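PROTOCOL LOG
Step 1. Enter all chains and additional molecules of the complex.
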Amino acid sequence: MADNEMKLQAEAVPATDGKKKKKEKVHLKPNLHNKTVRPTTADRVFQIIVDVFMVFILLVIVVPVWSTITLSFRPNTYIGTYLEGMFLPPWDWSIDAYKALLGNDGFALAFFNSLKILVGGVACALFLTVPMAYVMSVKTLPGRKILSTIVIIPYVFNVGMIPSYLLVTSIGLQNHLAAVFLPGAISTYNLIIMRQFFDGIPGELKESARIDGCSEIQVLMKIILPLSKAIVMTIGLYYGVSFWNNFFNAMLYISDNYLYPLPILLRNILMASGMNEYVEVNAFGNAPVQAIKAASVFLSAIPMVIAYPFIQKYFTKGTLLGSVKG
Amino acid sequence: MTIDKKNKKNGSATVVVNAPLNNRGRLGREIKRHTSVYLLLLIPLIYYIIFKYVPIWNAQIAFKDFQARRGVLGSAWIGLQNFSDFINSFYFWELLRNTVFYSVGKIIISLPLSILLAIAIYECTRPVLRKIVQTLAYLPHFLSWVIMYGILLSLLAPADGVLNDIIRLCGGTPIDFLSNVSAFPWVVLISDAWKEMGWSAIIFIAALMGIDVSLFEAAMVEGANSWQRIRYITLPAIRPVIVTVLLLKIGTILDAGFDQIYMLYSPPVYSVADIIDTWVYRQGLLQFEFGLATAVGLFKGVFGMILMLISNKLVSRMNEGSSIF
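Step 2. Run joint prediction.
Step 3. Record the structure below.
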């Protein structure tokens, strides 16, 4: 009882303090379930349904992932259904599939190609997006309207993949890792989010820096960027995820086995009906084909899963910036 | 003419500083004052011209009989031949139907699910459960469709996936989900819901967080139970967000998800799986029908543009002035 009252008091502060306080703790629901009013049967039924639904969602998310994980640890001697495989005790698991994949150069090579695309892509994308977003937010700039129009036209009018394909091949980017990230190095959506953020920085800050003799580049580097760490981080992550996951550009422009990024390698492994079809990986040892496929899925997902807890916060922020304003 | 017009618009912000000068001189001075800003713009603008505008220029091959060795400019004009070929072909309606079916189907399945999930996360009284569900539900959004395909394989593999094991346990006959014409659309719709449900819930959760808690407290005191609070407070409060999300989806209705379909489909299910984008890909890049494929892409681009402008107009009308562009 006392506990509940304490909670009520704690909750009362953000509730009365308006929007600002609440926004800080976005993930905390104002606790209405303190027993200020006796809950009715309907309320209890409601809470049970909510809990059941949450557990249901949890299962729906976890089961497919779990089936992939257990599949990847399946030993060669296993004879049973997939369903039974999900309940295989960990001491019967085998790591042959992982040994086979990690012992093979192809996987490490693809991983490093993906890493290069990630680092190069994010650096390049930020190098292009940040200055452009900044320039678009300079309110006194003659021609600002024209610039907005230049940005919006290709965003609204998407001519499709063939014209871009012709462009990339005509400037000789085939079989360069840059072909994976360059076509998407400025995403209009990210550009607009960033501009909106820059728009919110008070103009006086820039003005005073200019009066003190800063050049435009110095204003951007010394005044704007330090204030915009969060948004640069968010947008960088947006780009990072899109480059890391991109398989379409790699599929179109990269035909050299040594330049394959992870998604392409994974796709080739998954699409191969038998492993002997997949010639680049030859030392598969004694793991079953299904296990190797599942293990490659798991290994490809791991970097994202590890990075995810750190980036989740920024992502949620970014989505909200882009969607609901104010 | 244009310079004067521009000048009036841009000059207004700096009127105080430059009041005594005439228009032309002021514009010149303004431009000069901003030289370094333009310099910052130089590289991104070159990028924009190359990677965003050259493709638009290249799109002219939609009206040409494109021959790779002759190039974009050298190929002969054939007018609207490519377009009429497409519109009169049997696959025209099939592609359009599949595309619209998948984008509308995804909205119908995902939207209510994500709203339910948002409300459940908001109403859940167990912090640990809430945190776990919230974190896990966002995660699949970050996985690529290649990885998703791998996960789906272990579930839906033709002879021995988990789902087929369950079907067999219940005494049914196994289905090859990924190459069965009647099962495939469901695989697409449900796997998309699985991947994006949590992520699309974020915006609704944010809207829920914005509800004034005193409303709930007042309702409780008045004797409203949880269901009534959902019905009369929560849902009306997030209604504008739901409508906005729906309107924004109108703008992208011709994008049915290339990556997903491309990873999941195979020749047996082309008739129900092929969307405009996958068809353009196959026709253009595998069969080298560049002109025809570009025409179809352009067709999609023009209608996509119209839909996007309509949706933007409706959104800005609804939210008084705030629009995407």
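Step 4. Note key features.
Chain A is about 70% helix and 0% strand.
Chain A has a mean pLDDT of 80.
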